[in-house]
Amino acid sequence: MTRNLTQEPDSMRVIQSILVVMIIAAFGFAISSVGQVPAKQGSPARPRQTPAQQPSSEKRYIVQVESSFNTAVKANELTRKLRLTYPNAYVQSPGGDETLYRVFVGPFNNREDARQVANELTGQGFAGVMILPWSSTSRKPASDQVEKVEPAQTQEPDDAMRRTLSSLSTQIGALADELKMMRRETERNSTMLELLISEERLAKLEDKIQDAIDRKAQLDAREQEIGRRSRNIQGELVLRGGLRRDEAEAAIRADLQRSLEDVHTQQAAYQQRVAELNDQATRLRGRIEALRKKLELLDLKSDKEEK
To answer: Do 105 and 117 form a contact (C-beta atoms < 8 A)?
Structure first.
C-alpha cells in the first residue's frame, strides 16, 4: 500500500516533465520561424495597389456615335437615349481649339467588345459610329457638367407647375367660398319670397274670413227680422187689408217660413266657410312663423361668418 502511494507521485512528475519539454520546444520553433522572415531595412514598405490603381498595359477602346454636336443639349439628349441600353455612354466636352461635343460609349477592354457595340449601334440606325483608342489621359467626360445644369432647367418647369397649381387651388377655394355665399343668399332669397307670398295669402284669407263673418252677421240680422215679423203678423194683416184674413195670414206665415229656412241654409254655409278659412289661416300662420325663424337663423349665421 505504501509502495503504490510512492509510485503515483513519480509518474506524475514524469508527465509534468514531458509537458514542460513540449512547451519549450514549441516556443523555440515559433522564435525560429519569426527569425526566418527577411527584413528589408532602409526602404519603406510600399502600399499594395488596388486593381484600379495598378497601371494597365492593355489597350482600351471607345465607340463614338453621331460624329459631333454643336451644343451640349443635343449631345446630352443622345446620351440619355443611349444610357437606356449602354449605361457607360457619356458626353465629352470640347477642349483646346475644339468647339464640338462628342458622344462616346465605353471604354472597353478589347477591340472585340467595342466592335460588337459598334455593330449594334449601326444596326439600330445610328450614324457616324467609329471605334477609337482610349487612354486614361483623355479628357474627362462632360456628362457631369451637363447633368448639373439639367436640374436647374427641369426645376423651372416644376416651379412653374407648382405656382400654377397653387394659383388654381387658390382660385378653386375662392370659387367654393363664392358658391357657398351664393347658395346661402339664394336660400335666404327663396325663404324671403316664400314668406312674402305666405303673408300675402294670409292677408287675403283674413279678408275672406271677415267678409264671411260680415255676411253671417247680416243673415243673423235678417233672421231676427223674420222672427219679429212672425210675432207681428196681425199688424201686417191690418196693413194689407182684405176680406179673407185667414188665407192672408196663412200666406204671410208661409212666406216668412220660406225666408227663415233660406236664411238658416245660408247661415250654415257661411259658418262652415268661416271654419275652413280659419283652419287655412292657422296653418299659414304656423308656416309664416317657421319662415321667420329660418330667416333669423340665416342672418345670424351670415353675421358670424362675416366677423
So the answer is: yes
pLDDT tens digits for 155-172? 667 888 888 898 899 999
Q: Provide long-range contacts, Cβ within 8 A and 24+ apart, for 11-14.
A: none
Angle among Cα 91, 92, 94 to the nearest 5 degrees reads 135
- Which residues have CB under 8 Å from 190's CB, separation 6+? none
Q: How much is the pLDDT for 16?
A: 59
SS3 56: coil
Strands 89-92 and 101-108: antiparallel
Q: List, for residues 243-275, the tens digit of each pLDDT value.
A: 677 887 888 888 889 999 999 999 999 999 999
Kindly calculate the radius of gyration of the chain based on its CA atoms and give it in whole angstroms: 62
User: What gap in Å lies between CA 206 and CA 211, rounded to an integer?
Assistant: 9
